Queue: 2 jobs
Job 1
Amino acid sequence: MTSESLDDRLIGEASSSPAGPIDREDGSRLPEPPVIQVPRALQVLRFNQRQIEFVFRARRELGEVFRTRGVVPDGPVITSHPDHVKSLFTAKPEQAPSLTGESPLRPIVGPNSVLTAIGPRHMRQRKLLLPPFHGEAIERYAEMIAGAAAREIDRWPVGTPFALAPRMQAITLDVIMAGIFGIEGRPRRGTPERALRTVIRYLLALSTWPPAQLAELMNLGRDEPVGLTRAGLSILDRRTYALISKRRREAGVADRRDILSLLLHARTEDGEALTDRELRDELLTLVLAGHETTANSLAWTWERLVRTPAAYDRLREAVRSDTEVGEHIEAVITEGMRSRPVIPIIGRRVTVPWRLGPYAVPPDTPVAMSILLLHHREDVYPQPFAFRPERWLGRKPGTYEWIPFGGGIRRCLGAALAMAEQRVVLEAMVRQLDLEAEQPEPEHAVHRNVTMIPSRGARVIVRARRA
Ligand code: HEM
């Protein structure tokens, strides 16, 4: 390849690196990955507050694979090579179970939901939940998403700055309530639907309140919630069970398309139905996993777009002239999720010795994949820090190079829904609004639980509104 074409490249390839399970003897011949030599407490603090600086610095100083101390109790090894990612995504389930079983959501959704279970239990729940999340099933939601977006966008002021993230969250919550519970718009007073919608909105708002976030920390590592979380959840549970019981009694459930109604009819291979507790755990998992992630992903894409005039102009031109709209929208979303993955790191626990390039890790080691580092590899994404949606025109993202939804048997169940929501909302906003950043400086990332969100909530000003 000439240097000219190298400079023009928008997507490249990493040179290969051996990875995967190895036998004990081979494992003992290879060195273990280098360890970050910073006191444990400081590592935890830096990882939680400034993960970007933390992982980029470690990679600069120690190389592609390194081990942390204390970030989760036994300190994961962190890697960001596509071949290492592939080895973990395609591993036998028992050799690399997911670390989400140890997630902060565990005390809230319990140890048996599709997110927190591992092994055969996980596969069973996943099979039951897959059909309603399938691409074709999701296409039917496009109109409902467009309605939720239009109701919200119509209310935004012209000329007064506001944060996009909470507005995106209002849309994604409406979509979740409709898609999961079949609750569209504002249900009648006194119905279980209205009661549930109110308590979910209230608890989600409360969860961003700093004392409530501290209270959440008390739950880490537990199976059952304590304190404030427990009090909030018991109200939520009563209302969820009331709705489940109403739907069980209702005629015509078979004709409803919401996920709760579909799950009421779902049967495992042995013909078993889900119990109320299982239904509650899965429904809550979907609400919690599904709406803040999607909302912040959209907020980040806008945070980038309003600071990259060339990309914004190109998208606006394509959408407003109805030229290859789908391709341009997809490219912008893909680049948004590459440069600002809302979930910056995911992990597996290897149960056998595992090779990661020049190193080997012993059995029972947590191995994390830094989505942030992988998405900013210079060999795969030339000019990784530039926001260049044109990388993706006419090209699909690589399974092990672009992983904002994770991968393998733990790949995000809601990926098709999240993509549909982002497409519909982004297109509606581009068509109707001219947006500008409130301040030219980029927003930095703050970390909340497992997510990475824009520090000011992606603040913008609507400069003009089109009919
Ligand atoms: C842009 C939005 C979203 C992002 C970036 C995202 C990202 C992720 C990631 C990184 C994982 C872990 C994958 C792994 O470990 O390999 C995950 C799992 C999951 N997500 Fe999402 N997600 C999004 C939206 C949604 C939505 C809308 C739903 C459902 C309504 C959802 C439901 C789930 C569930 C149930 C799991 C657990 C799957 C399993 O363990 O089998 N997510 N998501």
Job 2
Amino acid sequence: MRKMPTPPTIPTATVRPILDMNAYDGQVSAKANQGNDLLMRRTRNVGAASVLFYRDPIEMVAASGCWMTASDGTNYLDFYNNVPSVGHCHPKVVSAMADQAARLNINSRYLHQTTETYLDRLKATFPDHLENVVLTCSGSEANDLALRIAQRGTGARGIIVTECAYHGNTATVTDISPSAFKRGELPDHVVCVPAPSKLAYGDDVAGGFADAIVKAIAVLSDRGHGIAALIVDSIFSSDGVFSNPRGFLRLAVAVVHRAGGLFIADEVQPGFGRAGDAFWGFLRHDVTPDIVSMGKPMGNGFPMAGIAVRPELLAAFCEDVGYFNTFAASPVAAATGLAVLDVIRDENLLANAMICGKYLREGLQHLADIDGRISDIRGAGLFLGVDLSPNGAPGDASGQLVGDVINAMRRHRVLIGAAGKYGQTLKIRPPLCLRQSEVDFFIEALGKSLRECG
Ligand SMILES: Cc1ncc(COP(=O)(O)O)c(C=O)c1O
């Protein structure tokens, strides 16, 4: 077989690729995992595209609420997973999905009561001007569609994203996901700016971020692309979780709108109540998106995603190509999504995110008071970012301590992830049905892990 040539390496900034964080690395850990037949089969089957969590990957067999059970019987507390957001295998969601699957499941080119009931309920969560909702099966597809609509609607091509953004895996969307790049550079029509953090912009985060957007628009104009859209994950999860002060996006969005561009709020991470004080992350900033994309928690594990969009933008796009997605908006997707909305309402999960989120922050603050390596605690509701740095100064460029702590936490039966430019941030994102006793379990495990990684 002909050997593929290796393209020249042109490093993008020094952003750590998102899929490398807390990943199994066959080069480093294969020996330690010798005899793990399942791992060998996985590696053989999926090849270079296999991405697994942990230096020693875990085989999972069951889950319920905030807990996952491994094949050796160990129960792990899930503090990472934003997908089963109302709780793993929630009985109401599972039975809505199974009942509908047993009755009828077809594509969306037939009329179906449950589908329209779901879309009505979903739409009611958005501002009135976002009159149309179009479902897809993944956040990547949703963002792909959003970008194409924005480029058609504005007649411009340029897109502004944040430095460590991840917006998905299609060709169009990989182009605007700096944290997906292992080598190479962003295409000419994409410009990135640092996420709205104090470290990047000082005390005036809103003003600094808006200034960076002004400069990015000028670059896109010089390059002849114009500005089609600013797209941000409205809680900046892969950038390291930046949520406060509320309202810091307002100035930047106004700048984009004045320049004729659109604002796309990517709600794949903060959507469906995770921040506790609002159903959508953009509502915390009092901004008016032209398009909202959503996904992950939408089906609590069933592959559902979509966009909410101004109807005139969608109409212009559909003059050219139209849009159809075989599996999206099926009766099973609608029944599942409806059950998720019911559970969020009936179990007061936004209020729980606020209450448990506050309790969690207090626990983290207590640890920070005794361990100076916790250099910052950020976030809203049940989406927190905690920076760890060996010398206590924010912005540690190695991420080594976070990697060690994540693996120590696993030994103490807690699953947690990393984020940030260098992987220096612990990403804390448990299901919204979290209980205070589970927060206590987490804090105790983090305290022990930090001591062990001294
Ligand atoms: C902010 C954001 N947008 C979009 C996506 C892509 O979603 P999906 O993996 O469902 O395609 C992700 C996935 O992690 C994400 O974090």
